[in-house]
Design a protein that fits this description.
With about 375 residues, the protein is of the alpha/beta class. The chain has one domain: Metal-dependent hydrolases (TIM Barrel, Alpha-Beta Barrel). Helices cover about 45% and strands about 15% of the residues. The strands form three sheets. The chain has a four-stranded parallel β-sheet with strand order 1-2-3-4, with helices on both faces. Helix 5 runs parallel beside helix 6, helix 7 packs parallel to helix 8 and helix 15 packs antiparallel against helix 16. The longest helix is centred in the middle third of the chain and has 21 residues. The chain is globular and about 60 Å long. The protein starts with about 20 loop residues before the first strand and ends with a helix. Keywords: Hydrolase, Metal-binding, Zinc. Its cofactor is Zn(2+). InterPro entries: A_deaminase_dom, Ado/ade_deaminase, Metal_Hydrolase. Belongs to the metallo-dependent hydrolases superfamily. Adenosine and AMP deaminases family.
Amino acid sequence: MSARDEEYFLAGSDIQINALPKISLHDHLDGALRAETIIELADAIGLALPAAGTDGLGDWFENSADSGSLVSYLQTFEITTAVMQTPESLSRVAREFVSDLAADGVVYGEVRWAPEQHLAAGLSLDEVVEAVQAGIDAGVDDALAAGRGIRVGQLLTAMRHADRSLEVAQLAVRHRERGVVGFDIAGAELGFPASNHRDAFDYLAAHYFPVTVHAGEADGLPSIRSALFDGRALRLGHGVRLAEDITVERQDDESTYVTLGPLSQWVKDREIALELSPSSNLQTGAISAWGDELGDHPFDLLYQLGFRVTVNPDNRLMSNTTISRELALLSDAFGYDLDDLETFQLNAVAATFLPLEDREELADVISEGFYEA
């Protein structure tokens, strides 16, 4: 069964997490398709699929992504991007993306995707952005009609192994008044540092345009350092391997004593948000240095030390997950209560690429929703 059809509860309580207001910061458009939509779109273009039926296809994506390697994990996107090459398919996927978020209680989301991967049918970069925005707008209208308020902004992603980052940065700035709120780089991380895209980051900085960078997932501290100082990232996409810069000196029954390295101290002191994605981090092997179970994830260490941790699904299809499911898993693993879950949402509010006044209003929405729970 798809995770979007499930109800999730706070550990040891009858509080339904799905009903709580939530924020989604790290959520890929081409990683959130419904299996039934892939089947329909693939049939229309004659694309052979690796499994039959919605359950079979969903299982194939989840099992294939559970590879222990980011490179292998990313290969599953060859299918999803293949069915997202027309204005109609892009709009449909974006519309359903928003509807699924709203149904899960998300009140603000940022959807990241790479326009350069959707040009095979002859569309221009501007045309694909416009098609996705049309779908987002329709999804927001659908949510409102269903009694759910949601707001969604686009994060335009450049592929870090390619050479179109400046072009995508210019595209993002060009559409900043038409739904685009930020810029990202993604793809195979190891060997492709943010410094390779310095021209794009310089351009974005000159135009006061916010940036998040995938870093600290398939590569370690040098990648994070490059994201911060070459990319001027205001958030770290995943960033989980920042924990490599934290030394656990000793532990007793009540406390853990640690020393922060200069990079982790910098990230903590400046409240740079970590876009953590627990299930995805397990699938890609991002936390292999600490273990292979959710309870081994350094999420709790980072949280207890005061880092601005946020909870994200990364790719809902590949991990068969939702924000609610990720929060439920963390609650079960670390004993988090309602206050902890609210903290994660308020951390995410503070890290959104919204104007300050909008963030303050959004924080009120979160606090009111959790108070009523």
